[in-house]
Amino acid sequence: MAGKFLAKSSGFRYMIKKIVLCADVVIEILDARDTFGTRNTDLEKMVRKFGRKLLFVINKADLVQRKDIMEFPKSCVISSKDPKDRKKLLEFIKSNLAEKPARVAIVGYPNVGKSTIINLLKGRRSASVAPIPGHTKGVQWIRIDEDILLLDSPGIVPSYERDEVSIALKGAIEADQLKNPEYVAHKILEEILQKDRPTLEKFYDVKFTSGDPQDILIQIAIRRGRLLKGKTADTLYAAKTVIRDRYKGKI
Hints:
By secondary structure, the chain is an alpha/beta fold. The chain has helices at 12-22, 41-49, 85-95, 114-122, 164-169, 181-204, 213-223, 235-247; strands at residues 4-6, 25-31, 53-59, 75-77, 102-108, 140-143, 148-152, 155-157. It has a six-stranded mixed beta sheet, sandwiched between helices. Strands 1-8 form a two-stranded parallel ribbon.
């Protein structure tokens, strides 16, 4: 899982402590599709321990209905894809600064949109962006304006996250690194089928013959022309496709 820090790795606590101590304010980026699930309570405890201010930015609001987003105090809901949210986010951050200029650390799970948020604030591409969990390498300071200096960091998975499926459903592990991509794809499909089956069928251009996730993977593979020897459907390809489409916010 290159490009992110796991709580069980030897350098995790040192890296987190270093990030927190360097900042005046720590902003935890959360995924609007799973606001509470993408909170890192290990990190939050450390931020409070060292007396830093903790703020929350709930990103990817464009992927869910506003009424379904779980909010709480000191949070700001945005879509980093919407340029109009730049002013809203800047005002939120600056209104919570005790002193200016301030050093602000951006932290969160892999693939919650840290780099796209930095790019939104900067107004141009300053941190490299890709829809691959853990893409940002190391840490880097980025000046937003005369009031804010941002510290970007790799995605961080907390110590209590030990279940690969749970981590994958939060978009925090690349499809190729999963031990069982088909099982993860099943969980993703089950969740979406309950909410909006027609949109899923339209996206993959397939009329599902059943609600069984494995049958759906077979249909997706066939529709994409991905067949193995003996003309059997390449369901592993279909599973990884579903997982990546979920990460990218396409489904």
